[in-house]
Specification:
There is one protein chain. 69% of the residues lie in helices and 0% in strands. The chain is an all-alpha fold. α11 (138-151) runs parallel beside α14.
Length: 257
């Protein structure tokens, strides 16, 4: 059945493509199905469909890729080798929130791999993700901040985050009522503040005050990352906190078909 569905991804009929993509989107929630779909070449076809003339096909293909790459190192590697990263960065610049949401979500899932982060930086992805922090769509903000959380585990994107004004935007998200946004923003700040220059910049823009203010009734895992960032800035002492957004939560898409 899955083999037939993968073949239908290449149908010339957009409706058939969409139906097949939605089946894969749901099937990819199961790890055994993900393995089977990957071995059948589904990821390569989904990547090809990111360039479809149909915005719906583009969006659903990213949704399926998002589920395929959620916590799955093999799928992340296959997607990276298949050229997904530059296309996903390109879609971050789309004017449609759904495309922004899913492209940033895919990059969040995939950016636990250093090679993905390197490609993302080369393709201008860090600046694209920073721009998405200003979106009025909360899920776009959460996914973009989550991707930056992961990317800033490396030095180059952390430097770029500061130079492009990303620290200030992340600080502004700490006042959000959305827990995912706050957690990912605080996590990105923590990783970024592993660099001394970023710690100094965060202090200049009153980021420490914002971190303290956002704790309130936040869940323990949010309070933990905030406390770690404050300690890092105050004592240059990195604490044991999750390095990647995906270590704390899994972002997948579900759709009835």
């Amino acid at each position: 059945l899955l083999k037939r569905v993968v073949r239908l991804l290449e149908s010339r009929d957009i409706t058939v493509q969409l139906r097949a993509t939605d089946v894969i989107l749901n099937c990819a929630l199961d790890s055994e199905n993900r393995d089977a779909l990957r071995s059948l070449g589904a990821i390569a076809v989904l990547i090809a469909n990111l360039s479809s003339s149909s915005r719906d096909v583009q969006s659903d293909s990213m949704g399926a890729l998002m589920n395929m790459t959620a916590g799955d190192d093999h799928s992340i590697l296959t997607a990276r080798e298949g050229g997904a990263v530059p296309l996903l960065v390109q879609h971050c610049g789309a004017k449609y929130p759904e495309l922004q949401r899913r492209s940033a979500g895919c990059l969040m899932n995939m950016s636990v791999a250093q090679e993905v982060v390197d490609e993302c930086c080369s393709a201008g992805g860090v600046r694209s993700l920073i721009q998405l922090l200003t979106s009025s769509d909360k899920q776009v903000q959460a996914n973009a901040a989550g991707a930056l959380f992961n990317c800033c585990a490396l030095e180059e994107p952390s430097h770029e985050l500061r130079s492009a004004g990303g620290l200030r935007l992340l600080v502004s998200l700490l006042s959000s009522r959305d827990t995912d946004i706050v957690y990912h923003a605080a996590g990105a700040l923590y990783n970024a503040c592993l660099l001394v220059d970023n710690r100094n910049e965060l202090t200049k823009i009153n980021g420490l005050k914002a971190l303290i203010s956002c704790v309130g009734n936040s869940p323990d895992y949010v309070q933990s990352i905030v406390a770690a960032t404050l300690a890092l800035c105050a004592e240059n002492n990195a604490m044991n906190v999750p390095k990647y957004a995906m270590e704390s939560s899994e972002f997948v898409i579900r759709r009835d078909v």
